[in-house]
Amino acid sequence: MRYLSLSRAARLAGITRAELQTRIRRGDVATFEGSVAVNDLLRLYPSISLRDDDALERVERIKADAQPKLPTGETALPDPQVLLSRLHGLSQTVASQMSDIESLKRLLDQIGERIDTMAGARESEVSGLAREASAWLRDARDRLAAEAATSAHSQLYARDTFLRIMAANVKLIPSGHDFFVEGNETILDASVRAGLKLSYGCSSGNCGNCKARLMSGETWKMRDHDYVISEREKAMGYILTCSHTAVTDLVLEAAEALSVEDLPRQEIRASLRKMERLSPDLVMLNVQTPRTQTLRFMAGQRARLTLEDGTAQELPIASCPCNGRHLWFLVRRGDDAFSQAVFQHLRQGQMVGVEGPRGDFVLREDSPEPAVFVAFGDGIAPIKSLIEHAISIDLIESFQLYWTTSYPEGHHQGRWCRALKDALDNFSFTPLLSNETADVLDVMRADFSEAQPMRFYIAGPENDVEPLRAALLGIGIEPNRIAIEHTAS
Ligand code: FES
């Protein structure tokens, strides 16, 4: 029986990992050590699209970077498109041969059973049994020949083989998290893109913080690094994830930040890359860190920004940790010195000090239960970070976002919300124009079943957030299911 990891099975079936986990929880399919059987996957999704369109589309993105060069600059390999077509053809051949071998093994078993029957039969019965066996064998061979070309198993294997060539799966222990390494990515870059929090520091082979132990599989060193791994550590399988990529599927023993306490406090000299004016009184700052010093944080956390004139403010980070180099912050015009400086003096390219991360308004990643996000006004900033992270880790069953503002133009991230709603089957967005607790609660209660356990993430000014928390507690929601973030009013 052939098994596939959940990530791989979901990818082959063209569904999210969260959807597959929901089917597993419902008992629709069994798992064995975190894997599902190919037969069960095909039974569950008989109409799996076995075409490779989406794989090829993804590969298009990767192939531009994936072309090794000779030292002279000449191309060492055929054109990527040719190479991909050949790989595709080879994976079809391998899969078809594997399928044939499996069928022949079954046939051999059946032939063995028939010979055993003949060996135990009376002499007078043997020739009749032999004739019968001969006819059966002819039919079996015809059936196998007809099945070989169209077998769903064979096509699924072919697709799996092709995807294995294009992306290696990395499983982390002890957490059990896994992710795919694609194209020319380092293991570290791929883990960050997947929303995981492997330990790292410089991202460039100097500090050794990303050291991890290879338990199985093969890696390839993409660049030399200054940090020295001792011979003893090398013999034990230690590598730097910021300097290696995965050649085959890997199992890696690696330190991960599992709570906010596991993240170090960081101070980074960053710069203002962009300032988007969302309204006369609201801007979105894009602060870029140096390439070798990304901010490690958890979605929903805050950072303290310090401008060149010394004014400072602690703000929620409005972006996903999957891109720790590009940090986004919402700043509303107010009477305070920081916002005055932002609106009057801050210019592209100026230095911005980033210190953090702070706060514990983070996603419960150990729970796939549906998540309800409620943002009051600019409380959308940490909520946006949480939602982007939740999407990148692909573990939450469904998301509902309620965003309430007191005026129609207040939904300044409306396009982002609608784009997510269009792209994701498990995401819903409800814009509201009332901050009244009773109004918000009424709309929410019409949408969700109180019988189903949910997690609530609420962000906004204290005088909006706290009454909603009290109201949720009042209808029986357990306190540990509600996470709160107070933002400026
Ligand atoms: S992160 Fe510093 S050596 Fe890899």
Considering the chains and any ligands shown, give keywords for the structure.
489 residues, globular, alpha/beta, 20 strands, Ubiquitin-like (UB roll), 6-stranded antiparallel β-sheet, binds FE2/S2 (inorganic) cluster
Describe the structure.
The chain is α/β, with parallel strands linked by helices and 489 residues long. It folds into five domains: 1-42, no CATH class; 49-163, no CATH class; 174-253, Ubiquitin-like (UB roll) (Roll), CATH 3.10.20; 265-358, Translation factors (Elongation Factor Tu (Ef-tu), domain 3, Beta Barrel); 371-486, Nucleotide-binding domain of ferredoxin-NADP reductase (FNR) module (Rossmann fold, 3-Layer(aba) Sandwich), CATH 3.40.50. It has 14 helices and 20 strands. It has helices spanning 6-13, 17-25, 38-44, 53-63, 80-120, 123-150, 152-166, 187-193, 231-236, 337-344, 380-393, 414-423, 437-447, 462-474; strands at residues 3-5, 35-37, 167-173, 178-182, 211-216, 219-221, 238-240, 244-246, 250-253, 266-279, 282-288, 302-306, 312-316, 326-332, 351-358, 371-376, 399-404, 427-432, 455-460, 482-486. The protein has a six-stranded antiparallel beta sheet, with helices on one face. It has a five-stranded mixed beta sheet with strand order 4-3-9-5-7. Helix 1 crosses helix 2 and helix 13 (437-447) packs across helix 14 (462-474). It is globular. FE2/S2 (inorganic) cluster (FES) binds at residues 200-203, 205-210, 227, 240, 242.
